[in-house]
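FAQ: What does the model actually see?

It sees only this:
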Amino acid sequence: GDFDKAIEAFQRAISLEPDSYETYCNLANALTKSQDFEKAIETYEISLSLNPMDMGVHVNLIALLIEQNKLPRALKACKSALGFNPKSGIIYNSIGDILSKREKYEFAKK
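And it is asked to produce this:
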């Protein structure tokens, strides 16, 4: 569908301009919408390797990791994001979400 076309277009753009963190972010967004979550996570991480200051990419990655119940990785991503913006309220909210989910999981295991 449309996401497949968008993914192909972003991949072509990356082949022409491999240092464009924005294009990697857009590709990751399209991959998320097409439910290719592992590839989306990997692509967000590439985007961050090119521009670790982009809090929007951090937020998208963290949200996807939480949604996919990859809580230890999400917590690690939060710590990384706080290294670039230690006053980010949305990252602290994400940490709260992670700890809450982890607590519910531990409770459910008992």
